[in-house]
Design goal:
This protein is an alpha/beta fold and 155 residues long. It has a single domain, classed as Transcription Regulator spoIIAA, CATH 3.30.750. It has five helices and nine strands. The strands form two sheets. The protein has a seven-stranded mixed beta sheet with strand order 1-2-3-5-7-8-9, sandwiched between helices. Strands 4-6 form a two-stranded parallel ribbon. A hairpin with a 3-residue loop joins strand 1 and strand 2. Helix 2 packs parallel to helix 3. The chain is globular and about 40 Å long. The N and C termini lie far apart (31 Å).
Amino acid sequence: MSNVQTFGTVFTYIEEDTKLTIIFNENVNDIEGFEKFCDLWLTMYHRKKNFSFYIDTSAISYINPEFALKTRSFIKYLKERDEDMQFLKKSIIIISSDLVRNVFKIIFSIQRPVAPVYLVKDAQTATGIYNYLEDDTKKLTSEEMKALNISLVMP
């Protein structure tokens, strides 16, 4: 069963079992919406249940620069938590824009993620990767990632 909610002008999320899909809207300018995203992430941690993000940024045409700083700070906060309290297992992020890709490069160059992050260019690749990696015993080789144009950012 899915739980679908929209938070202001920033994003919509769909929760399905252990998959949390975040679909960002055109302008990521609302810091209050960003804080709702962080609250949602923390809510998933409070449930003490493993989960994965499937994030679609393909509609974004503008990101408030403060978003990068707040994301870095939030990731740092999460990494300071007890290791037994880390429930995010992976993130797959669809990035079709150079602007968004550069923002994420900046964020991850300053602060490594809490779990592996797969950066892909389209929804078809993202869905395929997500489904493949649902089996925890499966891993993508560097050759497969190169062929599919996937960037992996490790914690």
